[in-house]
Specification:
Low-confidence stretches: 1-25
Order of helices and strands: EEHEEEEEHHHHEEEEEEEEEHEH
Strand content: 15-25%
Number of domains: 4
Distance between the termini: 67 Å
Number of helices: 7
Structural class: alpha+beta
Number of strands: 17
Largest sheet: 6 strands, antiparallel, barrel
CATH architecture of the largest domain: Orthogonal Bundle
CATH class of the largest domain: Mainly Alpha
Length: 456
């Protein structure tokens, strides 16, 4: 088909032959656009179809991004002192390198040393008293002091005086106890002699009674024959009864004296028992005091050993909190920090609670350091080492987060060996959580909306 196009006079004809004709001319254009349009639609549909297929099938990596800080694997070592004290000397300065065991700060030992000496004297006294009481309890003839005291007493006059004092107390207490028992034993001895005399009297009375019985028997025979008066017989009978009464009285006195002896022996036993009971009571009290004083002495000596505050690890001294000699360190207060130099560097990062889902120990991570030129700094790979079990709150921003720790792998260590990475440097961590498609990412908000739809 062809179409007619009118041209105005003065215009050049489109058709070269049109110049030969006057008035109107005809121009032929191709009008079959179907193939071009079809090809265009095929390109559009193929592009969108390919894009849709790619978004539905091609996996894209998902990750959690967190900001963090470079730290040493075992953290900074805070230097503290349990009891505190007065600063005698400061041996280091900020930024100084120290080795493990180096003296950092020296405290004034005067007060602690005086306390240790006092406790040492208390322990010595308690040991001497214990030895004396053990000798009293075991009825010893002398005190058996510990060998350590005997050896030290040769060069320590105060200890020798303490031991001599306990010997005097031992002798005085033994003399007092022996004096009490000696009086009672003398009384018993006198009573025994008295009993012996009375037993002789009893025997004499028995012999007298036997003789009178014989005489009385003969006198009765004479009286029966009328050769002796009856009153004579009665007189002899009264004498026999009198002797029997005297013998009974003597026997009664013997029993009384023997009872007195028993009482005296009981008093001796009671005196010894009372003495031993008091010794046992005093011994328990002394041993308890000895234990307490010994424990306090050990603690004080340990405190003396901590007058030199030493570095817990090799590293650099940072963040010193003390600068004044004769200043005071509070008990448990932080004195300074030591940053270990040979320890492994890691990154502590804060992950938002919304990104914590799916994070597991062992996941791969990428670490970037904003302080370095990103174009020249190689990609640093690491591995997720720990994930906090519960969310934490940042005290500065009051924002919740989960703490994660990322270790740099060995290959990346070699590539960043020339970089001056130091603790405290900021870092950005990208933790690879897995893969998902673009379509899944785009449809996720619609799914979430659908889940919440039609619900009050």
């Amino acid at each position: 088909m062809t179409s007619l196009i009118e041209t105005s006079p003065g215009l050049l004809p489109i058709n070269p032959d049109a110049g030969k004709k006057a008035g109107k001319s005809k121009v032929n254009f191709p009008t079959n656009y179907g193939g071009t349009i079809l090809a265009g639609w095929i390109v559009i549909i193929t592009s969108f179809g390919g894009l849709a297929a790619w978004s539905a099938l091609a996996p894209l990596s998902t990750a959690a991004i967190a900001s963090g800080t470079v730290v040493v694997d075992s953290y900074r070592k805070s230097v503290q002192h349990l009891q505190g004290g007065i600063i005698q000397d400061i041996m280091v300065r900020e930024g100084q390198h120290v080795e493990a065991g180096d003296v950092l700060v020296r405290l004034d030992p005067t007060q602690t040393r005086s306390l240790a000496q006092m406790l040492r004297a208390q322990v010595d006294l308690a040991l001497a008293e214990e030895a004396r009481m053990l000798a009293e309890r075991d009825d010893g003839k002398e005190i058996k002091f510990p060998a350590t005291l005997l050896e030290r007493a040769k060069t320590e006059p105060e200890l020798a005086d303490t031991m001599a004092g306990q010997r005097r107390i031992f002798e005085a207490r033994q003399a007092s106890l022996n004096g009490q028992t000696s009086i009672l034993r003398n009384r018993i001895a006198q009573s025994v002699e008295q009993i012996s005399g009375m037993e002789i009297q009893v025997k004499a009375k028995i012999r007298q009674s036997a003789l009178l019985d014989k005489e009385l028997k003969g006198l009765r025979d004479l009286a029966d024959r009328g050769n002796a008066p009856a009153n004579k017989v009665l007189q002899y009978e009264r004498e026999v009864e009198s002797l029997m009464a005297e013998r009974g009285e003597i026997l009664s006195n013997i029993a009384s004296v023997r009872q007195s002896i028993g009482e005296s022996e009981l008093q001796i036993t009671q005196a010894r028992k009372t003495f031993l009971e008091q010794v046992e009571t005093d011994l328990r009290t002394t041993q308890a005091r000895l234990f307490e004083s010994t424990e306090r002495l050990h603690a004080t000596r340990a405190e003396l050993g901590r007058m030199d505050i030493r570095a817990p690890d090799s590293g650099i001294v940072v963040d010193m909190a003390i600068h004044t000699v004769d200043g005071v360190i509070t008990p448990g207060g932080r004195i300074m920090d030591i940053v270990p130099q040979n320890d492994r560097l890691v990154v502590d990062a804060q992950v938002r609670p919304a990104d914590i889902d799916g994070l597991q120990v062992g996941m791969e991570a990428e670490i970037r350091f904003p302080a370095f030129n990103q174009r020249t700094t190689p990609m640093i790979h690491g591995q997720l080492k720990t994930v906090s079990a519960d969310r934490l709150i940042d005290p500065k921003t009051n924002q919740p987060y989960f703490n994660v720790r990322v270790l740099v792998d060995d290959k990346s260590k070699e590539s960043i060996a020339g970089l001056n990475i130091i603790p405290g440097m900021p870092a950005e961590v990208v933790i690879k959580k897995g893969e998902r498609t673009l379509l899944s990412y785009l449809l996720q908000p619609m799914r979430d909306t659908a889940v919440r739809a039609m619900r009050e």
